[in-house]
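Duplicate of #3305? Posting structure anyway:
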């Protein structure tokens, strides 16, 4: 009985060993084993495969996202601060346009005097909406003159000598461009932080200011 048991046990062990050897051989066929004892090396990813992993325009999108309107790198100003800078800049722009409304002279006086007032009124309306939005977001809007001047990225430009219509139009156009660019950045920031109401308001501002900009450029 002992002999029989031993024989049966050997048969079982041999079968098990055979199965293990077969398994090992199968694995060697699937995963090539290095001959020098180093860990297996994965086949290198070809450049073609790497390119397939990234969309063609991925690099372009990153570049776009990393460059602010000054082209000096990604603007990391928190949206709350950026909106305060916008409201200050818009107040300076409002004063600038109103100033031209007041000092306008020349043969197109009535047309330019009225036009500057319409532009000023549109900007003032946006200032009001933005201020109230800031309050809704728990941020105090800025109305203090010194802080407005400190924060504004729009600089007030004097026109000491005789009023020049083309000069006034260029000054407003340039300032509007800065405001529109900054608002566009803030549309993206608001969207990123799911601040949808602010995002929608700023999108409307951008659209309306671009219409104004078109009128201003057509006036030249
Ligand atoms: Fe007036």
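Output from current build:
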């Amino acid at each position: 009985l002992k002999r029989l048991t031993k024989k049966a046990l050997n048969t079982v062990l041999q079968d098990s060993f055979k199965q293990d050897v077969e398994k090992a051989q199968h694995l060697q066929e699937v995963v090539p084993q290095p001959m020098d004892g180093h860990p297996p090396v994965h086949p290198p990813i070809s450049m073609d495969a790497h390119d397939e992993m990234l969309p063609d325009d991925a690099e372009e999108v990153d570049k776009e996202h990393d460059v602010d309107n000054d082209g000096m790198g990604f603007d990391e100003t928190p949206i709350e601060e950026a909106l305060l800078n916008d409201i200050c800049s818009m107040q300076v722009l409002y004063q600038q346009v109103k100033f031209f409304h007041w000092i306008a002279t020349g043969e197109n006086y009535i047309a330019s005097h009225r036009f500057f007032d319409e532009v000023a009124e549109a900007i003032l309306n946006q200032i009001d909406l933005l201020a109230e939005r800031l309050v809704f977001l728990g941020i105090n809007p800025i109305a203090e003159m010194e802080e407005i001047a400190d924060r504004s990225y729009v600089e007030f430009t004097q026109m000491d000598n005789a009023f020049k219509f083309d000069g006034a139009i260029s000054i407003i156009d340039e300032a509007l461009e800065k405001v529109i660019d900054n608002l566009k950045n803030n549309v993206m920031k608001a969207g990123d932080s799911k601040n949808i109401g602010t995002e929608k308001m700023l999108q409307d501002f951008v659209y309306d200011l671009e219409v104004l900009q078109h009128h201003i450029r057509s006036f030249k």
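Confirmed duplicate; merging threads. The longest helix spans residues 2-30. Residues 101, 117 surround fe (ii) ion (CB under 6 Å).
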